Model the fold of this input.
Amino acid sequence: MVYLLLTILFAVLIYLFFKIIGMLKLEVFQIIVVNYLIATILGFSIWQQPVELVSMVSKPWFLTSILIAISFIATFYLFALSSVKAGIAITAVSSKMSVLMPVLAGFVFFDDRISILKVIGILLALFSFLLVFRSRESFKLNWKILVIPVLLFIGSGLNDTLTKYAQHRYIFNDETLFLSTIFLISFVLSAIYLATSNSFNRNMVSVKNIGAGVILGIINFGAMYFMLAGLNDFEATFFFPIVNVSVVAITAILGFIIFKEKLSLVNWGGVLLAIISILLISVG
Done:
């Protein structure tokens, strides 16, 4: 239970930190690159064992770590693009609805137990996402760009599903090395992209961006580490819905309290529904 609560806590911290980054108008992609570097250094420091490239490549989860790293970067890019093209509401809903993928994988591939209460709770959780992110511009979507949030849905769901797959099939007391490898690959790929991107502006490299990247790297590593640890204790069909719906409800409330974000009655109804869904999934 501790790992579940810590996963939720660190996921909420990521949301709050990105909110602050946006308010300070910092360079997000530079922060992301530094974040991956710090997470890599932190992971290998905690591992405290000799790391050889040959032994790392020979690990059964190495190919999966490459896929997850690529998915990490692609999902981040799609989230940013979808926010601009499709709107923040539909972007948030599509990224959270992606919980369907690891949930279905849990039932089909990981032999998770099915109960009526759990299924009802998951369905209510999905509906709560629609209500929490409901706004005046919520679903005024140009169907020509629908492919972007759809790809975001697939990418976000793929991240969680591949992580659960690796944890279920390949990882045996080397979670830290697995995460460090993912972050290392993510750092290399994102750094190459940033260095070759036309949008890269060396003048925007600043102490603020680097400092923000350091903080985000620590939080990001913690979120992934506790998620892997939590998946050892809970079924995917319990863990992912509980984490997602908890993060949505908590961040909505904190956004209202800290950032003075306006919540309508429909939004509050979504928060209440999220809490009910948590209880149903827990009992189920």
Remarks:
- The mean pLDDT is 84.
- Residues 207-231 form the longest helix (25 residues).
- Residues 2-283 form one domain.
- The radius of gyration is 19 Å.
